[in-house]
Amino acid sequence: MKFSLGAIQYFWPKQVVDNFYQQAAESSVDIVYLGETVCSKRRELKFEDYMAIAHMLREAGKQVCLSTMTLLEAPSELRELRKYCDNGEFLVEANDVGAIPYLQEHKVPFVAGAAINCYNQHTLRKLMSLGMNRWVMPVELSREWLANLLQQPMVHDVRDCFEVEVFALGHMPLAWSGRCFTARSENRPKDQCELVCINYPEGRPVTSQEGQQVFVLNGIQTQSGSRYNLVNQLPNMDGLVDVVRLSPQLVGTFDWLEKFRANVAGGAPQRLDKNDSNGYWLALAGLVQQLD
Q: Do strands 204-207 and 213-218 pair parallel, antiparallel, or not at all (unpaired)?
């Protein structure tokens, strides 16, 4: 079982990003995803900066994958997308189907991100025919669903031709919109947001009238209010999951990486925080935290 760091979801200052990836280079992580996947207005790092980080990580022995935007809204974003797809060196995670024709054109293998709606054997086989070699399962699906899908005839026969990756730590990306909810929460129009996301390095929490944190606002992205944490479900991923993804957090990411590694066989179970959840993997409501 390999462990990956997903692309940073939040808007962090460049120095914070550089420091984070220096820690990643020195860590035990196997795969690192790089790139802005949420909002093209976040320009602390440019494509050239990500490429420099990619080279540094590759020299440290990490597999690097460049992640594309999830919601494409302008011609300028398509031009940026082409840079990622044409990078010529690194694997690409396609988070929007618009990236796939570019990658197929150059016969470049790709990772199908969780935002690409792949729920059945027909879609999965189609993505494979287009060049997919790793598939990130949509975050709301369960172990039972995954196990059933991998036994379907169109998938079972080619199971050794692609990897399965599961989002296992972090606030789950649930939806994207043409509106910027973080700007809206400060009474700013999207076009005059003044990049207020940088003031919320872990997103802006949204609570119910009862005080429960139900969502996290992250620009145009809406995340789960609870932190998804599958550290204690690793033993029942054996034989199904090839790569376990941790979403970067401002504090504690690499500590959690070691906790995950220690519990691969179930020998070091972890106590979950009160705001952690694991319901989707267990085919329960997403907010549920079931203790084993």
A: antiparallel
Mean pLDDT, the chain, whole residue set: 95
Confidence of residue 287 (pLDDT cuts 50, 70, 90): confident
Report pLDDT digits (tens) over 239-267.
999 999 999 999 999 999 999 999 999 99
Give me the half-sphere count of Cα atoms (radius 13 Å) on the Cβ side of residue 135: 29
Phi/psi region, residue 170 (left: phi>0; alpha: psi -120 to 50; beta: rest), is left
Provide the whole-model pTM.
0.96
Concatenated DSSP letters of the chain = -EEEEPPP-S---HHHHHHHHHHHHHSS-SEEEES--S-TT--SS-HHHHHHHHHHHHHTT-EEEEEPPSS--SHHHHHHHHHHHT-SSSEEEESSTTHHHHHHHTT--EEE-TTS---SHHHHHHHHHHTEEEEEPPTT--HHHHHHHHTSHHHHTTGGGSEEEEEEEEEEEEEE-SS-HHHHHTT--GGG-TTGGGG-TT-EEEE-TTS-EEEEEETTEEEEEEEEE-GGGGGGGTTT-SEEEE---SSSHHHHHHHHHHTTTSSS--PPPTTEE-TGGGTS-TT-----
Distance between CA 93 and CA 69 in Å, rounded? 9
> Under CATH, which architecture does the 2-171+226-282 domain have?
Alpha-Beta Barrel (3.20)
Residues in a beta bridge with 207:
213
For the chain, what are the domain ranges? Answer: 2-171+226-282
Q: Is the pLDDT of residue 291 over 70?
A: yes
Q: Read off the tokens for 196.
A: 């207020």
